[in-house]
Structures are given as C-alpha cells and as structure tokens.
Write a structure and sequence with these properties.
By secondary structure, the chain is of the alpha/beta class. It has a domain at about 5-140 and about 175-200 and about 265-280: Rossmann fold (3-Layer(aba) Sandwich). Helix content is about 45%, strand content about 15%. The protein contains 13 helices and nine strands. The chain has helices spanning about 10-25, 40-45, 60-65, 85-95, 120-130, 145-150, 150-155, 175-185, 210-220, 230-240, 245-260, 270-275, 280-290, and strands at about 5, 30-35, 50-55, 70-75, 100-105, 135-140, 160, 200, 225-230. The chain has a seven-stranded parallel beta sheet, sandwiched between helices. The protein has a two-stranded parallel sheet with strand order 7-9. The two termini are about 40 Å apart. It binds NADP nicotinamide-adenine-dinucleotide phosphate. NADP nicotinamide-adenine-dinucleotide phosphate binds near residues 13 and 75.
Length: about 290
C-alpha cells in the first residue's frame, strides 16, 4: 500500500489531481488531501479521502499532515514572496516524515528563466535538491485558463493585446498538468537522488499570441487579431484599462518572458506523461469557457 498526499487540494490543480488519483484506482483511504482550510474539503472527507490540516505558513501543522505519506505532490503556493520559505517548510517536514518522493510544480525553465515568477521556483528546486528526498520537478508552462478568462475582453476589443512578439508560449489546460502530475507521482521509475531531481518541462505545443488570437477566433466564430506593443507601452495600456502599476508591470513582464522563449517548453514531456497528445488549444479554450 502506498499513501499519496496532495497539497493545495482545495485549488484548481490539486483538486483535479486528487480526482485523478481516485480515477486511477487509488483507494480513497490511501489519499491524503493536505489543506489549510479543512472545511473546504468536506466533500473529499465524505468520500473517504484523508483530509488533514497543513498550512505552508504554519510549519507546526506539517508533521501531522504528512505522517505515513509515501509520495507527495507539493503544489506550489499562491502567495508570492512567501513561497521559498513555505515550500522549504513542507520539504523539511516531508524529509523528516520519511516521504520517499516529492513531485513539485515549478515553472518552465526555472533554472535559467528571467520570468518574475522563476526565482521562487528556482529557490524551491534548490531546496529540493539539497533535501536528499528523491524528487520530480514539473516545470509547468502556462494554463489555458489564464487566457480563457480574458476571451470576453478579447471579443469586446477585437484584439489580443500583448508584448510577446513572435515568442511562443506552451499553453495547456490546467487539467493536463494535474493529470501529468499524478502520472509522475504514480510512476515507479521517477525521482532520482544522486543526479538531483528529475526535471520535466511541461506544456502544449508552443503558440505565438497571434496563434492564440486565431484560436480565439476559431472557438468563438469572431475574428480576433493580435496587436503587439513594446513592453512599456503594453504596461501603460494595461494601466489605462484599470490595472494598478504593479500588476500592469507584472503582466507585461510575463509577455517579455514569452518573447524571450522562456515559456516555450514544447509538448513532448507533457504528452509523454499523459500518454496522449496534449489537449489542443482550441479545445482547452472551449472547455474553460464552458
Ligand atoms: N502555470 C500557470 O499558468 C499557473 C497559474 C496560476 C498559478 N500557478 C501556480 O500553480 C499553483 C497551482 O495552481 P492552481 O490553479 O491550483 O492555484 P489555486 O487554485 O490558486 O490553488 C492554490 C492552492 O494552494 C493552497 N495554498 C495557498 N497557500 C497555502 C498555504 N499557505 N498553505 C497551504 N495551502 C496553501 C490554496 O489553498 P486555499 O484554497 O485555502 O486558498 C489552494 O488550494 C498555484 O498555487 C501557483 O503556484 C500556475
């Protein structure tokens, strides 16, 4: 019997990962959902999943959350600036609890990327490496949901506005990343310690933002064009549209990262974990729009 734990089990990726473990035949009693709000996971508890309180920011909650866990899916936290300390607390508790493998959700090309989100993932990867716990690092590119949420705005303006130039972003639906994470968790040949963590660069086929605009047109039946701006002008346009300065700069920096190719992973590693092609972009946009 192997016990699997998933952190962030109340979130989009973690909840899908728990469902995938159950769909793959893991008994509910062998699945531990580590959550900071147990009341939000009452539905999982009712189905026999072990729901345990574990808060990345409260290290004292983590040993109890990880008792008896063999393999852990550590879903990266959602509080920028806190995450290296938070993830370190989880990794240290996992090592102390005798967890035999950690699968961690990182970002594409975390080791070399100048993406503003990369440093915390790189820092976490270094902690994982030093922990001695066999690990798989899933360097996830961009969720289709990030763009699907903006489709109404694209339609209202008739354009996708950005600063990514000809850069490609490897978009895939969050569910594909969750299913792949479970595949990595279940596989017996993942996770090395001598050579450091196994690294998988995960995403869909790289697409330019012009390609994204074409996919939006295909899905909605309304033509949408891509208009490329210098990053500074794009940030100013976002501010003019109502974003605060910090958020606008962040969004523009993500596009600059795409322009540098830092979110282009290709689809080979994700398709290999899925055992099927990555969900096509148009299908992912359609599904996310419901
Ligand atoms: N690749 C991408 O495009 C992309 C996009 C967005 C996010 N991400 C990253 O991928 C992660 C998973 O994505 P997602 O869509 O599942 O995000 P999400 O829906 O925001 O879920 C984040 C999960 O982390 C939990 N969490 C946050 N802080 C915690 C803490 N201090 N202690 C314990 N649990 C904590 C949240 O718990 P609560 O339910 O209690 O809040 C939630 O379950 C995100 O957290 C973020 O690091 C990637």
């Amino acid at each position: 019997m192997t016990t699997y734990a998933v952190t962030g089990a109340t979130g989009g990726l973690g909840s899908r990962a728990v469902e995938e473990l159950l769909d793959r035949g893991v008994p509910a009693g062998d699945v531990v959902a580590v959550v900071r709000r147990p009341e939000a996971a009452a539905g999982l508890a009712a189905r026999g999943v072990q729901v345990r309180h574990g808060d990345y920011s409260q290290p004292g909650t983590l040993p109890g959350a990880l008792v008896g866990v063999d393999r852990l899916l550590l879903v990266s936290g959602s509080e920028p600036g806190q995450r290296v300390a938070q993830h370190t607390a989880v990794i240290e508790a996992a090592a102390a609890a005798g967890v035999q493998r950690i699968v961690y959700t990182s970002i594409a090309h975390a080791d070399t990327s100048a993406n503003p989100l990369a440093p915390e993932h790189r820092g976490t990867e270094e902690v994982l490496q030093r922990s001695g716990v066999p690990a798989t690092v899933l360097r996830n590119s961009w969720y289709a949901e990030n763009y699907a949420a903006q489709v109404d705005q694209y339609l209202a303006t008739g354009e996708v506005l950005g600063a990514a130039g000809e850069g490609r972003v490897s978009i895939a639906p969050r569910a594909d990343f969750a299913v792949a994470a479970v595949a990595a968790l279940l596989a017996d040949d993942e996770g090395s310690v001598d050579g450091g963590p196994v690294v998988r660069e995960l995403g869909g086929p790289g697409v330019t933002l012009a390609g994204l605009a074409a996919a939006v047109g295909e899905v909605t039946g309304t033509p949408v064009r891509y208009r490329d701006l210098p990053a500074g002008e794009y940030a100013a346009a976002l501010q003019a549209a109502g974003l605060d300065e910090g958020t606008a700069g962040f969004v523009a920096a993500i596009d600059a990262s795409i322009a540098r190719g830092e979110l282009d992973t290709g689809d080979a590693d994700l398709a290999a974990l899925l055992g099927r092609p990555v969900t096509p972009l148009a299908d992912a946009l359609r599904a996310a729009r419901g």
